[in-house]
Amino acid sequence: GAITLTSRALESMPSKWYFARYTAWLQLALAYLMSGQLNRSYEVLALAQREDSAAISPLHVRNTGTSAFIYLMAADLSGFMQIAQQIVSFCQRTNQYDSLGWGHCFLAIGYYQRNALAAAELHANTVQAQRYACDPIAVAQSAYVLAAIHQAQGQPEEARRLLAQTNDCLVEMNCEELLPQVAAFGAELAVRQGDLDTAGRWTATAGPQ
Hints:
Layout: H1 2-12, H2 18-34, H3 38-54, H4 62-73, H5 77-94, H6 97-113, H7 117-129, H8 136-152, H9 156-172, H10 179-192, H11 196-205
């Protein structure tokens, strides 16, 4: 299975194959999580993060960053936000804007889940202000947080405007593959606003045709 194969891969790959190894670490942590072995998944993350610290290059932070996804999937919000803050603190010193954008995106998601909307908005806006230097997925995800905040604050028009702006931005960035995700969130937003006709049109066109 996946656990056996990824374990063998990590045993055979040299440490200098950092990018291949970080992918294998993530797959192994996911495999343990999906099999219900959360503690083993956390152990794998700890081992992977040691490779970030031991790497010759001071810029390696991918193992630490991807571990945030595991914490979020495990509903460990405290661990998730701790990792996010580590990413932001590290990348602010090294000017790694792509990873820095992910750190702020993670913090925006975490604070939103805690209903700390002002803090969530601050971090989400930080991503939007630097969107051309950030990963497009982080740009989109932070926009969803902002739209949800505007909706929660009784500003449905602003939420829709922000989503339309995000759609245009992704087209400009040649990231059309993310547009179905924007449309899906738009349908969710429509439901929150009581616009079932718009949501219904999306459900009629979503998925394989």
